[in-house]
Amino acid sequence: MLRTLCRVADGAAGFARDHDDDFVSVPLGLVALTWIRLFRPLLQSNLPQSPSNVGHERLGFVKEAFRKLTQVSHLDFRVGMAFSGDIGAALHQSLKDAAETIARMPATHITYPNGGPIFPVIRIGRVPRPSRILLDQTYLASFGDVLIPRHFWRALQRFDAWIEPTLVAEWTRLIKFYASWQGGQLDDRKLAVAMTWEEPSRDVRAARERAIKLSEGGQLFCVWSGKRLLSETMDLDHCFPWSAWACSDLWNLMPAHRTVNQREKRSQLPADRLLRASEGRIISWWEAAYTRDQPPLRERFWLEAASSLPGVRAGSDSVHDVFDAVCLQRMKLKNDQQVPEWTGEKYAV
What we know:
Elements: H1 2-11, E1 17-18, E2 23-27, H2 28-44, H3 64-67, E3 82-84, H4 85-104, H5 106-109, E4 121-123, E5 132-134, H6 137-141, E6 144-149, H7 150-181, H8 188-195, H9 205-216, E7 234-238, E8 253-257, H10 258-265, E9 269-270, H11 272-277, H12 279-291, H13 295-308, H14 319-337, E10 341-342
Parallel strand pairs: 9-10
Antiparallel strand pairs: 1-2, 2-6, 3-5, 4-6, 7-8
Helix pairs in contact: 1-2, 1-7, 2-4
């Protein structure tokens, strides 16, 4: 449960909402989705999850629906993905089963000394299955909410890079203990692979296709220098460097002159002054590439922004809100992870 909340705080904090002065709420469906994504590699590797079972026989959420998901990569269990047909039905039922397990087990038994739950769950009644499942905020919130103490949530957001390795080490220790209880031997390499959280690939194809199309019409400019770009001089820059925050969301991919990207910015954060000086070019790129007359990319752009950036509301239509959220996330990465900055002084005017 704690590692699940760590992953949500790191990669989908935009879905958290203020509940009251003491709690933030996170969609129960998002917690269940992350829970499934964490357990899938462990169960596929047949790693014991209790002293009396080898793989998954006693895990309440592992039912027939969960087993039908074997043909889907666990990397596809992320915000913005859509499912239909038998796979959609299996995923919906698996999320219901995982949500039930979370509400009945960790949310009930992780308590304060006085017995009160630390992570109360607000359940919603029957969750109807849509014909097409889109893993967005509306659908994931239809299962209910997990309430997280505000101070705890802030700690996860700020220190998850240090907290999660501790949780992984403890989970690994427990798995090894369960295996020894059963008299088995574990392959440490297999265990390490199964415990690794894999990010989606560094895929920039959709953004690159749009950039090339715009460059052919002479409408593509480097967001940092303002130089007009041709296909042979254009790079797709991760505004927030991949080495600091593995994110290939559309909003994070910026057209940049190859020389600027590879020799000047490299794996650095844009400084606040530079980022704000580039606002007009960044917004023009988002609008031309994604949000204007590109329905599939528009939907993906807004889903990704609402998931990974703070303060972007699902269904919002203001790219200025997205830019403000980018500035806030930049400050967080700078303060919490001490990511080096690129001032780009000659462009920050």
